[in-house]
Specification:
Layout (H helix, E strand, L loop, with lengths): L1 H17 L8 H13 L4 H29 L9 H25 L7 H20 L1 H5 L8 H10 L8
C-alpha cells in the first residue's frame, strides 16, 4: 500500500513541480527559505506551499533511496513482502519522516494556526514512535496505519502529501 501511495503521489506531484511548486536546488535553498521565514511571519498559504514543496522534494529523494536500498540488499522494491517493507521502512522511510518533523518544527507557524500545526506535528511524532516500536504496523499496509491521523490532519490543513510516511 505504501508503495502504491508513493507512486500515485509521485505522479500527481510531477505536475505540481511543473507548476513551480519549489525547485530542487537542495539544502541551500531550504536553508535560505527557513531563514527568510524565521524573519517574517508566514501566512497559511505560504506555510502550506513550503511544507508541500518540501514534502514533494523529500518524497522524490525517499523513493529513490528506497529503491537503491532494495537493490543493494536484494529486496523486491515493487512487490516487497511485509518483512522487506519493514526493513526498507526502518532503513530509509523513517529517516525521511524524522527530517519532515524537523522541517515542520523549524518553520514559524501562521498566526492563529499554532495549535492546529502542533497537532499535526504530534501526529507525525506519534506515527513515528509507533512505527519504530512496531515496524509491522506500517509495513502491513492495513488501515489504520501509524500515520492515518497525520494523513487526515495534513489533508485538512492543506499540505496533503506531508501526511504520508
Amino acid at each position: 500500500m505504501l508503495l502504491a501511495v508513493l507512486a500515485i503521489a509521485a505522479t500527481a506531484l510531477a505536475s505540481l513541480s511543473l507548476a513551480g511548486c519549489g525547485d530542487s536546488s537542495g539544502a541551500e535553498t531550504q536553508s535560505q527559505e527557513q531563514g527568510e521565514a524565521a524573519k517574517q511571519g508566514m501566512t497559511k498559504k505560504e506555510f502550506v506551499h513550503r511544507t508541500q514543496a518540501q514534502c514533494h522534494r523529500g518524497y522524490l529523494k525517499q523513493e529513490a533511496a528506497m529503491e537503491r536500498y532494495a537493490n543493494k540488499h536484494g529486496l523486491d522494491f515493487g512487490g516487497a513482502n511485509t518483512r522487506e517493507r519493514e526493513e526498507i521502512n526502518n532503513a530509509v522511510v523513517l529517516t525521511y519522516v524524522r527530517k519532515r518533523i524537523a522541517y515542520w518544527k523549524s518553520l514559524p507557524r501562521p498566526e492563529g494556526d499554532e495549535k492546529e500545526i502542533g497537532k499535526i506535528i504530534k501526529a507525525m511524532e506519534k506515527g513515528l514512535k509507533i512505527s519504530e516500536k512496531e515496524p509491522n504496523r506500517l509495513a502491513s499496509g492495513e488501515d489504520p496505519e501509524p500515520f492515518t491521523t497525520n494523513r487526515h490532519l495534513t489533508a485538512a490543513y492543506g499540505p496533503w502529501l506531508c501526511g504520508q510516511a
